[in-house]
Design a protein that fits this description.
Strand order of the largest sheet: 1-2-3-5-4
Number of strands: 5
Helix content: 25-40%
Order of helices and strands: EHHEEHEE
Number of helices: 3
Structural class: alpha+beta
């Protein structure tokens, strides 16, 4: 004769969500410290891989990481206080690509700010600062800034990567 049935360890399990489309955007708060820069790089790579799915590449992940690191570093260095910095990664509709924004509590920039150095000006190879916005303008398809309810958002967009230029993992 069989023994008594083992009790169900979780008599009322939480429902498992039905498979569906992944979110088209990620929003993450980052600390207002230099530690936010490598965290943001990793989050952008993870977000793009998660929301793109394995069959498509919304944008060049390496470029997205580099430009995100520049925006987060600028937010940490140039905004007062210790309020969090928000990172927003969003896929764009057809033809595709992504937009990445960094929100901070600094004052909204005027129309003549955040334009970065003159691209025609010579670059001092020994200078440690001053290339971030130049990189963003050079490598993104569009970039800018806008006021928010609590400060400003600085953003850039990257175009979709053509299928023939996509790298496979490990390549």
């Amino acid at each position: 004769m069989p023994g008594p049935a083992a009790p169900d360890p979780d008599p009322d399990p939480a429902p498992v969500p039905a498979p569906g489309p992944l979110p088209a955007a990620w929003r993450v708060e980052l600390p207002h410290t230099t530690a936010a820069v490598p965290i943001a790089r990793a989050l952008v790579r993870t977000a793009l891989m998660a929301i793109e799915g394995p069959e498509r590449a919304a944008a060049d992940r390496d470029t997205a990481e580099l430009l995100t690191a520049e925006l987060v570093a600028n937010a940490v260095e140039h905004t007062p206080g210790d309020g969090p910095i928000e990172l927003v990664v969003e896929l764009l509709p057809a033809p595709g690509g992504c937009q990445i924004e960094v929100h901070d509590h600094g004052p909204a920039a005027g129309p003549d700010q955040l334009v970065g150095p003159d691209p025609a000006a010579p670059v001092d190879p020994w200078q440690e600062h001053g290339r971030g916005l130049l990189l963003i303008r050079a490598l993104s398809s569009d970039c800018g800034h806008r006021p928010t309810a609590h400060g400003k958002a600085v953003w850039f967009t990257l175009p979709a990567v053509p299928a023939q230029r996509r790298r496979t993992p490990g390549s």
